[in-house]
Amino acid sequence: MFEARLPQGDLLKKILEAVKDLVTDANFDCSSTGISLQAMDSSHVSLVSLLMRADGFDHFRCDRNISIGLNLLAMSKVVRCVGNNDAVTMKADDNGDLVTLMFESQDGSKVSDWQLRGLDIDSERLGIPSTDYSSVVTMPSAEFARICRDLSVIGDTVVITTTKEGVTFASKGELGTGKIALRQSAAIDDDADSPGVSIELQEPVSQSFALRYLSFFTKATPLAPTVTISMSNGVPLVVEYPVGDMGHIRFYLAPKVED
Amino acid sequence: KGSQTHLDSFFGRP
Questions:
Q1: How many Å apart are CA A102 and CA A5, to the nearest integer?
Q2: ipTM of the predicted structure?
Q3: Would you list which residues of chain A are within 8 Å, Cβ to Cβ, of chain B?
Q4: Are A139 and A227 in contact (CB under 8 A)?
Q5: The pLDDT value given to residue A259
Q6: Is B5 close to A256, i.e. CB distance below 8 A?
Q7: For the packed helices A9-19 and A72-79, what is the interaxial angle rounded to 10 degrees?
Q8: Per DSSP, what are the bridge partners of residue A49?
């Protein structure tokens, strides 16, 4: 059997909000080390990769590896009922046909039980090569979300350029052009809620990406105050948000190239 | 504007 209890149920809620618009159905692959999920969007342009380590749960039991296939939209509707301080327990039988989600309020005064039908999803896992990225930008997640939203007014593609001085996001369209530059900056009083902008630069990068997908990724903003954007010329970028201190959610996006 | 590439061409099947 599989059973896992997550004291911070709102993490699961935020995860579902972050992926439900990008991926319809996905397998939660459960093993003794934790839960992982890997899924591409239907057009094979982006990929989401989630990791929740077993040690982040206050109870975790997985007798044998199982894949629990779920419709993420249906799951997100159920998980939206999780109260912010609720604990969530996920359970499944050994074949993953039926999945139970149980939400418990902090004082134990309310318990709700939900059952979802498991789906048989045929998905291949892609081998993601480990890459030493040329530029790694860490910045406030809310700022990244805002930049994606603001530049979408002008165009559908953003050129992200990193230099020693900072990072720029530029877009152009029929209406005109827009460019937002961020300089490296220190965090304000080491306040985790006001992170600065930092760039680890092996080599400058300039690469084009579809704003539509980046905007989907920013649905993960409530998960964490910071986001890390890793890039090398000519390969997919990675946008990573930590999931508490138990793992991460990574979004990969294939670049746009000159015709 | 450029053309969109796909992940299949970067990430191999294991």
A1: 9
A2: 0.90
A3: 40, 43-47, 124-129, 156-157, 208, 210, 235-236, 252, 254-259
A4: yes
A5: 73
A6: yes
A7: 140
A8: A38, A250
